[in-house]
Design a protein that fits this description.
Blueprint: H1 16-29, H2 38-47, H3 51-63, H4 68-83, H5 87-98, H6 105-118, H7 125-128, H8 142-155, H9 159-168, H10 177-188, H11 192-205, H12 210-226, H13 235-247, H14 251-262, H15 267-283, H16 287-296, H17 303-318, H18 322-335, H19 340-355, H20 359-372, H21 379-392, H22 398-408, H23 415-428, H24 432-445, H25 450-459, H26 462-465, H27 471-478, H28 495-509, H29 513-525, H30 530-540, H31 544-554, H32 568-574, H33 580-589, H34 594-604, H35 625-635, H36 648-665, H37 670-679, H38 681-687, H39 696-702, H40 706-726
Helix pairs in contact: 1-28, 2-3, 2-4, 3-4, 4-5, 4-6, 5-6, 6-8, 8-9, 8-10, 9-10, 10-11, 11-12, 11-13, 13-14, 13-15, 14-15, 15-16, 15-17, 16-17, 17-18, 17-19, 19-20, 20-21, 21-22, 22-23, 23-24, 24-25, 24-27, 25-40, 28-29, 29-30, 30-31, 33-36, 34-40, 35-36, 36-37, 37-38, 37-40
Length: about 750
């Protein structure tokens, strides 16, 4: 019933220049293939060091003493010896490697200097780090090298110079090591005041680190020696340390910190510490105790009191005390109308009533957000919730609100939904030209979004096929400053990107895959072409799921990129299809579309067979052990153990059966099935009763859990992309709205008042 996967090249190749460039890079970097596999030897040695394994690499280096492979072996031996704290051996190997690896000389220099620092051979370090001066390309190790040089200067009794070079690069130093080294240099230079200030920065900003422990000991020493001249930490630093513990979910430690600092601080800062002690109780699940404590606080009118009211409202939410919570919200509105804590309370309360399908409550709360806090990032979300409520309840002002959503927040991803439902309004009014124009703009701006898939379906309707784009709607949409696509369509390697790839491949061929990855990541963040470096990262990744993560990280706007504009490999890295044989067989055995199964796995586990979620769901399809055990019995899987879910074949077998069961329970409705897969059928059974949905997209947009709503949209969107990539026939692509995509044609957008088309 399904089409054979991979049987057709549905995406134009059009990437010969990129492929040729990568081939040239490969030929330039890799020496002739060696009899032994150096990367494998190094990988095993780093994971399980032994004298025998080291000897294998040393023999390799000896046999290749005249070529680049031997130098790479010495580099690997040097780095590994440093990791094992065998500093003399590290120095010996790194000195041998440095002169013969000019393209990655900075790596040999940095690790050589690090080893020399450990054996106090400080006088040699400055000479080694000359490799970073005038380098052809920025090094990811440059800032670390500055710290190493500064430590050597302190050892050489030249702390003033150490301070100078650290201050010059202070904004880019690795932290907390950079500030700790600077504090040490100041102390060595007898500048105790600055030493104390920088030790304090480490202690308060990085509480859960070894550096903080060292800074703490130094601060005790300095406080004793400085007496009254010791600078007290700022209240912001003290509160920040408590906030760091809260951010790390260390709520007990956070409460201890806040309670202690409340005894030291005064005024507003003291009040804030007292409030956050109560907030720590709430966040660790002690809502009743937190509520009593927060109620007992008598604070002056300030943002600390606004924060207290916010957490008090959260405690009341946890206790399902609606009346008290609404009273607390009224107090916030009366006394702290523009406070960010009122904003947080409004959004939280709006979400609470959204989950209960109470538009009589949530609409006014969300409306208060976008009316009183127009510049906050939460505003597009809140406006959309009010807009969607109007649309799904068929209010007469729904189209007006959809237009407002587009005009006020054109950069928000929900613009695609607004365009789609404006198209549906136009269809209801038999304005098929307007509908075609709205749908076409979705394909132009958001070609791989969920609503692009829906728009393609609508554009197949004969009434829309026959319609011409509406000039009035075209003019209207041209006046909205939609964001430009961020992923570059460049296919030619720049000289910088080319050199990054060459350096990374040299490191990989030395078995130092972690350093190769860091090189490419650094380039993607700083000076290279991120999408091309992401492809190189994906190409060299040890598994498809790692490659997928690299692509998502460095080509984040891929959903706004037309498939035809990028090489096929770009999309195959983003939408991999490992375990294809087992996936297709098990999907077809359950009469499921393999593309949907692949799309679900991409969303559930990103094709990581060893994935285990925080809720203990296992493997590719993220099955819970109890559910899997029942499925195993029915599927004839003998002696089932939870660990078997980490086996792709078993997981696909049970996962496909589970998906089939859920699809049957939902009457073959994929939207409800996927929502049930993510959130549970009990929730879905409730959601489907909330409105008389006229199409599946309305149900999906109504799902109150953001995670579940985005999950359903993502799986269906992914399935459509998989089908286009691997299907036997390319889906017909409807034309867009006929508007030029030349940037010149959009000049002046947003400068004039727009007239809305009649919807």
């Amino acid at each position: 019933m399904t089409m054979p996967l991979g049987s057709a090249q549905t995406i134009p190749a059009r990437c010969s220049s990129l492929v040729a460039a990568l081939v040239l890079v490969t030929a330039a970097v890799y020496p002739a293939a060696a009899a032994e596999d150096l990367p494998s030897l190094v990988k095993i040695y780093r994971e399980k060091p032994s004298v025998a394994r080291r000897a294998q690499i040393e023999r390799f280096a000896s046999r290749h003493s005249k070529d680049q492979s031997g130098a790479l072996a010495h580099l690997a031996l040097g780095v590994t010896s440093l990791e094992q704290k065998d500093y003399p051996r590290a120095i010996q190997n790194l000195k041998t490697a440095a002169a013969r690896l000019p393209k990655i000389q900075d790596y040999a220099a940095y690790y050589l200097a690090s080893a020399q620092l450990q054996v106090k051979d400080d006088a040699e370090i400055a000479g080694e780090l000359v490799a970073f001066e005038g380098a052809q390309i920025a090094s990811p190790l440059a800032s670390k090298a500055v710290v190493v040089q500064a430590k050597a200067l302190v050892d050489l009794n030249n702390p003033a110079e150490a301070v100078r070079i650290l201050r010059e690069r202070n904004g880019s130093l690795p932290q907390p090591d950079g500030d700790l080294t600077l504090a040490t240099a100041y102390e060595a230079a007898s500048d105790n005041l600055n030493a104390a200030l920088y030790y304090q920065r480490v202690y308060f900003a990085y509480p859960d680190t070894d550096a903080a422990d060292r800074a703490s000991a130094a601060l005790v020493r300095l406080k004793d020696s400085m007496g009254s001249s010791y600078p007290p930490p700022s209240s912001a630093q003290m509160l920040g340390r408590g906030d760091k513990w809260m951010a790390e979910h260390e709520y007990v430690r956070a409460r201890q910190e806040f309670a202690a600092m409340a005894q030291q601080l005064t005024g507003f800062e003291r009040d804030r510490a007292r409030v956050r002690a109560g907030a720590s109780d709430y966040l660790r699940g002690e809502a009743a105790a937190a509520s009593r404590y927060l109620e007992s606080l008598d604070l002056a009118r300030s943002e600390a009191d606004a924060e207290r009211l916010y957490y008090l409202a959260e405690c009341q939410r946890r206790a399902n005390d609606d009346d008290e919570r609404l009273e607390t919200l009224k107090k916030l509105a009366k006394e702290y109308r523009t406070s960010p804590w009122r904003l947080k309370a409004l959004v939280s309360a709006g979400n609470y009533y959204l989950l209960q399908n109470r538009p009589d409550r949530f609409e006014s709360l969300y409306r208060a957000v976008y009316e009183d806090f127009p510049d906050d990032p939460m505003v597009p979300y809140c406006h959309w919730k009010v807009t969607w409520s109007a649309y799904v309840q068929r209010h007469p002002d729904a189209a007006e609100r959809l237009h407002e959503q587009l005009e006020r927040y054109p950069a928000d991803p929900r613009a695609s939904a607004a365009l789609y439902f404006l198209g549906r309004v136009s269809e209801d009014q038999h304005d098929f030209s307007a509908a075609r124009t709205y749908y076409g703009r979705i394909l132009s701006l958001y070609p791989n979004f969920y609503y692009a898939m829906r728009a393609r379906e609508r554009l197949a309707d004969p009434k829309l096929v026959a319609a011409e784009p509406s000039p009035k709607v075209v003019q209207y949409l041209n006046g909205i400053p939609f964001p430009e696509r961020r992923v570059s369509a460049e296919r030619e390697l720049s000289s910088t990107t080319r050199l990054r790839i060459e350096r990374a491949r040299l490191l990989a061929s030395a078995g130092l895959s972690d350093l190769a990855e860091s090189e490419l990541r650094f380039g993607a963040r700083t000076d290279g072409q991120p999408h091309l470096l992401a492809m190189e990262l994906a190409r060299t990744a040890q598994s498809p799921y790692l490659g997928l993560r690299y692509m998502k990280s460095f080509a984040p706007d891929y959903l706004s990129t037309p498939i035809e504009e990028m090489p096929r490999a770009f999309w195959e890295f983003l939408f991999p299809l490992p375990y294809q044989k087992d996936l297709v067989r098990n999907a077809e055995s359950q009469n499921l579309d393999p593309f949907v199964v692949a799309a679900l796995i991409r969303q559930e586990s990103e094709f990581n067979p060893a994935a285990v979620s925080r809720k203990s769901a296992y493997g590719l399809t993220q099955l819970m052990p109890a559910t899997a055990r029942q499925l195993a019995k029915r599927s004839g899987v003998r002696r089932f153990r939870t660990s078997m879910l980490l086996q792709p074949s078993t997981n696909l077998r049970l996962g496909s059966r589970y998906l089939r069961t859920m699809l049957d329970e939902c009457g073959g409705k994929w939207e409800e099935t996927l929502a049930s897969y993510n959130a549970g059928k009990t929730h879905v059974d409730q959601w489907v009763t909330w409105n008389s949905f006229q199409e599946p997209a309305e149900f999906v947009e109504t799902i109150p859990f953001t995670e579940t709503r985005e999950y359903v949209q993502a799986v269906l969107r992914n399935a459509a992309i998989y089908r286009r990539l691997y299907g036997t026939a390319r889906a017909a692509l409807p034309s867009t709205d006929g508007v030029s995509t030349d940037p010149k044609s959009r000049a002046g957008r947003g400068k004039h008042t727009r007239s809305r088309p009649v919807s």
